[in-house]
Amino acid sequence: MRKRYQEASYDIVVVGGGMAGLCAAISAARHGANVALVHARPVLGGNASSEIRIHISGADQSLRQTDYAESGLLYELMLENKSRNDTFNYSIWDMVLFEAAKNEKNLTVYLNCPMFDCSVDGDIITSISCFQETTELTLKISAPLFVDATGNGTLGYFAGADYTQGSESNKEYGEPHAPDQPNNERMGNTILMKAVDTGHPVKYEPPAFAKKLTEHQLRYRVHSKTMKVDASMAPDPEEWLRLSACSCAAVDYGYWWLELMGDGDDIIPDYEKIRDDLMAYAYGLWDHIKNGGQHGAENFALEWVGALPGMRESRRLLGDYVLNECDILEHRQFDDAVAYGGWCVDLHAPHGLLDFDVLPSDCHHFTGVYTIPYRSYYSRNIRNLFLAGRDISTSKLGLASTRILGCCAVGGQAVGTAAALCVKYNVLPRELAPHIPEVQQLILKDDGFLPNILNQDEKDFARKATFTASSAKPNGTPQNVVNGVSRKLGDDSNAWISNGLSANGETLCMKLDAPHTISELRLTFDSNFAYPIRVTMSANRQAQQRIGIPPELVKDYTITAFRNGKTVYTKEIRDNHQRHNVVAIPPTECDVVEFRFTATNGAADVTVYEIRAY
C-alpha cells in the first residue's frame, strides 16, 4: 500500500485552530515552548473565520460594559486587522490570523490536517495521528503536553477523558435556571447568510430542497426591518423586546436563530444531517423573505451562505472544577483565576428554529464579570491534557456564557501561558498549581486582564520608579502608570493623561530607584474600548465602529535612557497601531528613562495606562 508517513515531536501540541487554539499556540510559543498547531480546516479562526463568520463578542456584552472588553492576544489580532481592513473583509482577517501564526518562530502550523486517532499510555496521551489531505501525508505527532481546542472535545474523547453533555438538574449545583431533571437538550448549530442591496429589483428562485417557512412560524424571530413587534403576544415580552432591539438581522445579514440541534442523542454524529437541514431552511428562509410578503427585500440578492455550520454546544470535558451558573451570577473570584467572562447566561431554544412557539434565546443578564479557575482548563483524568475553548470544564449553564468567542480566546491565551510554564518546570497541568501566581502575572504582563489582580511582578523595575510628566489632567496623574491596572475601570482612569499635545510633544519621565540594566520596555496605550474593532458582517455592528486606527492610540514616540544625566540610548517608534508595545533594546544601564510622545493617531491627549521595565 502506498502511503506517505512522517513523525514529529514538540513540547506542546494544540489540536484545533479556532480563536482559543490559536491564542493558546501563540502564547505558548512566545513563552519559549516548541509548539505544533494542528487544524482540520484551511484557515484559522474557527467560528470567527471566513468559513463561518461569527463576529467576536465578549465580556463587554456588546458595549453594555465596555471597560471589560478582552485585551491581550485577541485584541492585538483585532487591532492588526483594524489597521489593514476597514471594509470588514473576512479574507483579510484570515490573512491576519495566518500571518500571526506564521510569524512565531517556535510555532509550526499544520493546516488541512484532521486528527483521526491518538495513542494513550494509561492516563497520558503520547501522540496523535493526523492525515493532511492536501499532501496525502499521515503524521504521528508526539509531545508531553496536549491542548484540546477542538470545540467538540475530540482529542479528550479519543483519549478517554471524562466528559458530559446536555443539562444538569438544579440539584447538581443549585443553579437557578437549571431544569428540575437532567436532560440532553443542546444549543444547536447555525449557518449565517449575507445579502447585498443591488439598487434594483432582483428575483429569487429557491432550490428544490428548500424548506418553506411561514410568517406565523417566524413571528418571534426578527427577519426584516419592517417586521412589527407585538410584545404582548410573546411568551416573554421583556426578552422579546430586547431581542428585537439588539437583533443583527435586518434583511442583509444574520439570522443567528437559524439553528438546529438534530434529532439524535448526540449532536456530533448528526452534524452532516444538521448541515443539510440548515441549508434547506436557509434557502427557504430567503425564499420567505423575498417571495413571502413585504420584507423590504426587493432589491436584495444573496451574496454568501455559509456551508460550514458553527457549533455552540456538544461535549464538555471535565476538569478538577466545573464552573457553573452560580459562580457566574455571584461573580466568583477564584484564587486560581486565569481568565474571566462577562457575557450573559445565554440559553438558546433547545430545538432552535423548530421551537416556533419559543423565543430563540433566553438570556439572563448581569452586571460585571466573573473569573474562571485554572482547574477548569485541564482534564481531571487525562493528566497531560489542557482544555481550551467551548469544551472546558463547565456545566451547561456555565457554557452558556463561557462559549462566547472572546471568553474562549482569553482562556486559550491563559492555557498557552500555563502550558509553557509546565514545560519550564517539567510538570503536568495539575502539578502547576503552586505556580499559578506566576501564570497570573504573565497574563497581566502580556496585556491580559484578571479582575482584582494587580501587577506584582518583582522583575519589573518600573514598579519602584517615580514618574513625572510635562503635563497631566487631574484624573490622569503620571504615577498611575504603575498602579497595577492597565485599563479604565469605572471612574478610575488608571492612566497618565496629558493635558493636550504640544508642538514639541509630551514627556513622561521614569526615575528608577537605582541604576538598572534594562533590555525591554512595555507600554500600554489607550485605544478606547467604547468603540468595537471586530470584523463583522452586521451593518448595525459595523456602524458602531470608526474608520481607521483608534485615534486614542499613540502613534509616534521616542525612548531615551540616561545614566548620570548623560544619554546612553535612544530609540524611535513610528506609526504604532497597537495598544500593547513590547520594545526590545540592547541591555542598557540607566537610572532615568524619558518617553517623548509626539503624535497620536488623532486624539488631542496622550493616554498611557502602564509602563513596565525589565
Question: Termini separation (Å)?
Answer: 57 Å
Rg, Å, rounded: 25 Å
Specify the CATH architecture of the largest domain.
3-Layer(bba) Sandwich
Number of domains: 3
Strand portion, in percent? 25-35%
Tally of DSSP β-strands: 28
CATH class of the largest domain: Alpha Beta
What's the shape? globular
Helix content: 10-25%
Mean pLDDT: 95
Give a verbal description of the structure.
The protein is of the alpha+beta class. It has helices at 19-30, 72-84, 90-102, 154-159, 170-173, 237-246, 271-291, 325-329, 396-402, 405-425, 436-445, 539-543; strands at residues 4-9, 12-15, 35-38, 107-110, 115-121, 124-132, 137-142, 145-148, 163-164, 189-190, 193-197, 253-254, 259-260, 300-305, 310-311, 316-317, 337-341, 345-348, 361-364, 370-373, 385-387, 466-469, 496-497, 506-525, 554-563, 566-573, 580-600, 607-613. It folds into three domains: 4-166 and 315-342 and 367-445, 3-Layer(bba) Sandwich (FAD/NAD(P)-binding domain); 189-311, no CATH class; 461-613, Sandwich (Jelly Rolls). The strands form eight sheets. Strands 22, 23, 24, 25, 26, 27 and 28 form a seven-stranded antiparallel beta sheet that branches. The chain has a five-stranded parallel beta sheet with strand order 4-3-2-8-21. A four-stranded mixed beta sheet has the order 1-7-6-5. Helix 1 packs parallel to helix 10 (405-425), helix 2 (72-84) crosses helix 3 (90-102) and helix 10 (405-425) packs across helix 11. The termini are far apart.
